[in-house]
């Protein structure tokens, strides 16, 4: 049943391979919990068993975010079993998610990103350096997710209309504008890539011309930003936060930022307005004579 569900969400619902693997791990963990504590199969579990599992996870000091993700996986799994008439009721329906402490998203400051990226990209003649640089540029100038960056193909850029086509969550496409300056940098990177590796299908590739992998992108951001920022969390997602915060701090409309980020709901974007307000308060404290 688990295998059938995983095939369903991957090929029918178009979930990413990372989400599929995460769901597989979460459901298998719950199955292990049932086997060890109740000698029950997954279809026989009820709401009490799920609550017991969540309590056990809390005792293991797992975060509310992690537990809620596992609960979401179970809800989807049991919804599928209900659809396939393997069960008569979804035992996870009555379970509510844990409350999470509201955390403001962290971000890099504009001067930190400028320092990491540098100014004269065309002076770079090393493919490896150009690849690291363009990863930072694309993440910060478009706000795309790491998985979206990895899936970009060379053909997704339209240099006439200055746009980038991105395939996001749920296989949804969106179009993101790029600047003339970014276009020049992309073309220079493509030239160096062609010189060293030859023709490739994906935009960001390994030295062997294969599609880059998630940890490679993470490592680039962590190491590059670690040289210029004191921020403890240095990940591709922080670059996405920085993109949104920079736009809002400079007067962008929140609905436009929502579309650029590919958020389904405005509430997901509104968290960045709090970040902008925090920066506003900091600037006020520094600048006001009667602080």
Please characterize this protein's 3D structure:
The protein is mainly alpha-helical and 291 residues long. Helix content is 58%, strand content 4%. It contains twelve helices and three strands. The chain has a three-stranded antiparallel beta sheet. Helix 1 (2-12) packs antiparallel against helix 2 (17-37) and helix 11 (254-261) crosses helix 12 (266-287). The termini are far apart.
By CATH's scheme, which homologous superfamily of the largest domain applies?
Intergrase catalytic core
Overall geometry: globular
Major sheet: 3 strands, antiparallel
Name of the CATH architecture of the largest domain: Orthogonal Bundle
Number of helices: 12
| Strand-pairing-aware structural class | mainly alpha
Number of E-state strands: 3
Determine Rg (CA atoms, Å).
22 Å
Low-confidence stretches: none
Mean pLDDT: 89
Q: How much of the polypeptide forms β-strand, as a percent range? A: under 5%
* Terminal-residue CA separation: 63 Å
Order of helices and strands: HHHHHHHEEEHHHHH
> How many individual domains?
2
CATH top level label of the largest domain:
Mainly Alpha
Into which percent range does the helicity of residues fall?
Answer: 55-70%
> Strands of the biggest beta sheet: in what spatial order?
1-2-3
The CATH topology of the largest domain:
hpI Integrase, Chain A
